[in-house]
Design brief:
single chain; alpha+beta; SH3 type barrels; 2 domains; rod-shaped
Length: 218
């Protein structure tokens, strides 16, 4: 008995308590017990109880039933990282890309756009031309593009310029005729077989070429 009592006093029990089994078969629940000479002191929930040690036939340990484990903590919420939104390309970047795509000098395409719209993607002329390359709706439809989309507008304008340069490549002055056709339309250039005698068109051609030379000097 003394050895058992010493173990229960010195070693923290992994059990909830014990039962003192009496000679008459009764069982008394106790947290622990101490052996004091010929008596046994039981430490119960309501206090202590002293019994003659001869009245106790055995001690039975009460198994400890641990509480159910706490549910696992939910995984931390995954907060999606917002992707940086790239700023839209600038008019100059759009013109650079369009010129490279169609094998034109960017300075040339840029000079046309500056004369047409001052590089404003939302420009609308009195005649209804749209965007930085000032495409007429009919021309845009023929080219299969949305003239209100700056990227499509720049690409189509460069493509149209390239086609006009190809059209007049065997003429004495293909660049001036291509610019005149871009401004007044190929039909007018073909009718006069030269730059049409329109003040606006003639001024336009010289303005673009002057801007082009300035661009080359930068």
């Amino acid at each position: 008995m003394r050895k058992t009592a010493l173990i229960f006093l010195l070693v923290p029990s992994a059990f909830a308590g014990e039962y003192a089994v009496l000679q008459n078969g009764f069982r008394i629940h106790a947290q622990r017990h101490e052996l004091n000479g010929t008596s046994v002191r039981l430490f119960t929930d309501s206090g202590t109880m002293d019994l003659p040690s001869g009245n106790v036939s055995a001690f039975e340990q009460e198994e400890y039933t641990p509480p159910p484990p706490a549910p696992p903590a939910p995984p931390p919420a995954i907060v999606p990282v917002a992707k940086a939104i790239a700023p839209p390309p600038t008019p100059l970047e759009l013109l650079q890309e369009a010129a490279s795509k169609h094998g034109l000098r960017p300075e040339f395409v840029r000079s046309v756009a500056m004369a047409e719209s001052a590089l404003k993607t939302n420009a609308v002329s009195p005649k209804g031309a749209l965007g930085l390359m000032q495409l007429m709706p009919g021309t845009a439809a023929d080219l299969g593009v949305d003239p209100k989309d700056p990227k499509q507008n720049a690409e189509a304008g460069a493509r149209y310029l390239r086609s006009l340069l190809e059209k007049y490549k065997n003429s004495p002055d293909p660049v001036r005729l291509a610019l005149a056709a871009y401004n007044a339309g190929p039909a007018a250039v073909d009718r006069y077989r030269n730059i049409p005698p329109f003040r606006e068109t003639q001024a336009y051609v010289e303005r673009v070429l002057r801007q082009y030379l300035l661009q080359l000097k930068k």
